[in-house]
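Structure request: mannose-1-phosphate guanylyltransferase, Sulfurimonas autotrophica.
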Amino acid sequence: MTNIILCGGNGTRLWPISRTLMPKQFVKLFDDKSLFQLTVERNSKVCDSQFIVSNSEQYFLALDQLEELQKIHNSYLLEPVGRNTAPAIALACMALEPDELVLVTPSDHLIKDEVEYEKVLRRAKELAEKNNLVTFGITPSSAETGFGYIEADDLTVKAFHEKPDLNTAEKYLEAGNYYWNSGMFMFKAGIFLEELKKYSPKIYEMSKQALANEALTSSKNTIRIKHDAMLNIPEDSIDYAVMEKSQKVKVVPSDIRWSDVGSFDSLYEELPKDENNNTTNEKYIQIDSKNNLIYGNDRYIATVDVDDMIVVDTGDALLISKKGSSQKVKQVVSEIKKTTELHNIHLTGHRPWGTYTILEDSDGYKIKRIEVKPGKRLSLQRHKHRNEHWVVVSGTATVTINDDIFVLKQNESTYIKAGDIHRLSNDTNELLVIIEAQVGSYTGEDDIERLDDDFKRGTD
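Returned structure:
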């Protein structure tokens, strides 16, 4: 059985922890592990392999975190632009054998009862092997308005329902045959594709074309889809494209202590607490405060006579909200997009070659700490609007500036003028750390013209 892991989504309801280039599934929220890592570990116990569907930025985050787990032998499908879950699953299934059993899971859900989870998977496998499309219905613990619902008659799906209002959700809970729609599925790859072809033929055909004629294969385990080919595929969810129309759908009721960790209120429920029901944090000081979610690792956070609050500090952004109102964070992100890049990236940005951390950013200049992994190098590039000064803190840097290639060691430096073609490389087995000072009229991350790149990216 293959676990198809869907890594799309930006998790804007968990801003400022979650950003476009570091979405919630890769943030290490639980015992220094991410939801993505927990998903891989959980499903590796029951699946033979992972097939990870993501965009190129998330691909490198996934590679890093899989390396930490020592689970590097996987398959990858890279989407240049997201087209929702139906095309993502279709492309993955088309790359597998028709009889291959697949478990489709999001990468950002938490499941705490793994013993019951494995029992649920065994029930689903029995149904999927009989050519059914199986969905997992979460046994509701409350009248939740943030989830879609599955109406069932025993194991047969009667209907899918959109997110209800509170009154309707309470009726669903009382009825006892309604389940939260988990977004997890199990079926044979070929059976799903047959149903997709029957009920959403254009998605099927355009996905087939994209995979057969437009794929750029960088290795035997990695498939890259071209941008135009991906855009030609109609955008739709698996629910709308197949599950709501097929006559082969079964549901397995699942009481597995599941959470989509879709808001700070739900995150609060899953984090460890102190004796006052505040989330535990070594740098949190409370005076007569209780029931608070406190998140922050850099600065001390103190509260006095504060109850039922959410306080999230990430260094470059501070969120303060009443508990129960955290769904409105999406509105905050909409406002932020109008004026800054804070929705997009943290002070520390992760790249396939390493990381950079912004130490200071002001009009006319920016200072970064750059770490380059052993054997990695940045793209061959140039800038229009800024000059750069590089100082080696530790390690050995191989520097290319126009036609010159030279080596810099600790405490040595160089200068790159605007317009110079340049590259930073680490040809050693040790980490390279430099300080980069940018000076110019514009120091944004999009002032990069790439001329050659090991990772086949556009601009950062």
